[in-house]
Amino acid sequence: MKKWIAPLTVVATLLGGAASAPSYAQTAAYPSKPIRLVIPFPPGGGTDILSRLVASKLTENFQWTVVPDNKAGAGGTIGIAEAIKAAPTGYDMVMGQKDNLVVAPWLYGNLPWDPTKDLVPVAHVAYTPVVIATAANSRFKTLADVVAAAKAAPDTITYGSPGNGTTIHLAGNLFEKAAKVDIRHIPYKGSNPALMDALAGNVDLLVSSVPSAIAQIKAGKLRALAVTSAARSTSLPDVPTVAESGYKDFDVSTWYGLFMPAGTPANVVTLMNSKVNELLAKPEFKEAIHAQGAEPQAMKPEQFGNLLKADYAKWKGIVQASGAKVE
């Protein structure tokens, strides 16, 4: 028996090593083919701009091939569903943010997925305040001008947003409540149509992510009246916050980050997180994000997961109180 046990032990050890070898090989080789980055919104908006920046920098700095893929519709939920149904191999990821992961589940109510269970948080990229702006030739010079006009003629001032139930729409709704005014919301299908109508004067105000509006603000075609974060935007340092404009403790911002389907190997998640955080530590990458109106912020996957869960619980009440409905 002894003379058989020793050889069998060696064989078992070798087989065990062979069984574990593919996992090691896959980690060592990753990525061995292009990685798809699903962008759940149309080209030109804040999510699209940041997604393409991340894809290009991952490609440029690490010689990976990251391919952006716009899958827009239904408040960003179509793109999220596309990522969730992908094989959890690390070759499909999605740029998620508050609109499609925190707000949409409470807005739609019947989505067949749960962001806290069906996705793995990979890397937080940035956060951005919402900006309240108006055309450069508008009669409104300050937020106080808007409030005065809205109080004098309720429901006559209009503001455009990227759509019903988006974080941006809800930021406008929260401002209405804080200022005790009634401003008419005009929802659009994406950031660009709202922006174009604001520039044309077809709506009085634009409520937008900073990345979507900053180019027109810098060009002098839009006048930024306020940002909704607690602190001023690094990209728009001369623009006051809503809180500074007289509405104490007002603080609304949105975040952007990478997610992969649940079941993606932990070592792939850790590797992608380390690469994105490495980018976020580079001054030139920070500057590129600031240039788009966002604030870079690195997190470990666990931290990002905690942020998602906390916001998911918090925004349920905000969505319900707003009365927002899907068209």
TrEMBL record:
- Keyword Signal attributed: yes
Asked whether the keyword Signal is assigned, the reply is: yes
State the Gene3D superfamilies in the record: Bordetella uptake gene, domain 1 (3.40.190.150), Periplasmic binding protein-like II (3.40.190.10)
Which positions carry the signal peptide feature in this UniProt record?
Answer: 1-25
Q: Which UniProt keywords apply?
A: Signal
Q: Which domain of life is it from?
A: Bacteria
Q: Which InterPro entries match?
A: BUG (IPR005064), Bug_dom1 (IPR042100)
What family does the database annotate? Belongs to the UPF0065 (bug) family.
Return the protein name.
Tripartite tricarboxylate transporter substrate binding protein
From which lineage does this chain's organism come?
Answer: Bacteria, Pseudomonadati, Pseudomonadota, Betaproteobacteria, Burkholderiales
